[in-house]
Amino acid sequence: MRSRQSVPVASVAGLERSARLAGESFGYEDVRTLPTRAESGSRWLWWLVAALAAVGLAALHFA
To answer: How many C-beta atoms lie closer than 10 Å to residue 62's C-beta?
Structure first.
């Protein structure tokens, strides 16, 4: 009986190997650290700007 796989097994093994090697190369990016003060401040600033933009759009809409 013929296999119905769309990708040959050899190609899948090659893709898995490539993914594993890429994961090992960039594994340092998976390390999570606590956000620094600058990042937290930046996030707070973006939320403030978004809230002000929402208030401004609401004011324009209902004016």
So the answer is: 6
In a domain, 3, yes or no: no
Whole-model pTM: value is 0.41
The pLDDT tens digits for 4-39 are 656 555 566 777 777 777 666 555 555 666 667 766
**Domain encompassing residue 35:** 9-62
CB distance 43 to 35 below 8 Å? yes
Number of domains in the chain: 1
Q: Which own/partner pairs from 37-44 qualify as long-range (CB within 8 Å, at least 24 positions apart)?
A: none
